[in-house]
Amino acid sequence: MVPLRDENPTVITPYVTYGLIIANILAFVYELSLPPQQLQSFFHLAAVVPRELSASFAGVATNQPVPEWTTLITSQFLHAGFAHLIGNMLFLWIFGNNVEEALGHVKFLIFYLACGVLAGLAQWFFAMQSGIPSLGASGAIAGVLGAYILKYPNARILTFFGYFLFYVPAFFFLGLWFVQQAFYGIASLQTPANVGMESGGIAYWAHAGGFVFGAILAPILGLFANQSRNQSNFEQF
Which of 123, 153, 195, 208 could potentially form a cystine with 181 if both were Cys, beta carbons 3.0 to 4.6 Å apart? Predict the structure, then answer.
């Protein structure tokens, strides 16, 4: 299922959401400018390489010009291809503005980056000795989804599936998405050669972890502080 838009209007201009999308696009344009060998070197520098992160946590030098922990932030702005970038930015475009409105611009940025860091650590925990760079905004965006499902569970999501367009409530769409990520994350523990980060595929634990951390952090940061918005738009399916 592919989300196309939500019926959940905002009254603010989501500057942070727009800025994050622009930053991700600019980073990808830079990636495209690099020849393959330099691109691989750049990924090893700016993406999370779990065994190097593990070494840095153990106090072992990794011969990198910047502290290894900073890759937990820089990796959030890197993508492995057009489909990877477009998919992530679509989700951020649809769901980010509402969460930004609920939290406020500054807290939303802090929330977004924190979710990305915690999601990266969740994936690292399950593949501490992997040498494959882990990158992408998915973990941070998963945190946004975790906040969205709490704040706007009944918001209608226009969804494309197969040849059909239909509306589904956010709790169904995002709940199903989370269950899928958790399922594949568990499966990857038993079949690391086929799914998960060890194969250079999708970092499912970053997705599931980001979603859970988002659902925990957002209320702490004031997700429900302003309940004055009229919720009547979301009462009918």
Answer: 208
